[in-house]
Specification:
about 80 residues, alpha+beta, Alpha-Beta Plaits
């Protein structure tokens, strides 16, 4: 069973979070991604883009999203 662990105002924010979870081995899906991308004001009307994971992965996924990115996740532009 999938549950929504976060909602994001813009598809790009949701995709960044999704990529972070997938890098940690957690499968996830986005809801309303395409609808939210069609018009700038629609995400507010539909509650944003939802990030869903398996119920068994939810606690770990939330911990990952709430933690600071690791140093290797940050690109040094120098």
């Amino acid at each position: 069973m999938l549950i929504t662990i976060a909602n994001f105002p813009y598809p790009i924010d949701a995709n960044l979070a999704k990529s972070r979870l997938e890098a940690e081995g957690i499968d996830c899906v986005l809801t309303n991604e395409h609808i939210a991308g069609m018009n700038w004001y629609w995400p507010l009307a539909i509650g944003g883009v939802g990030l869903q994971v398996r119920e068994s992965d939810a606690e770990r996924a939330v911990e990952i999203l709430e933690s600071e990115p690791h140093d290797e996740d940050v690109v040094d532009e120098d």
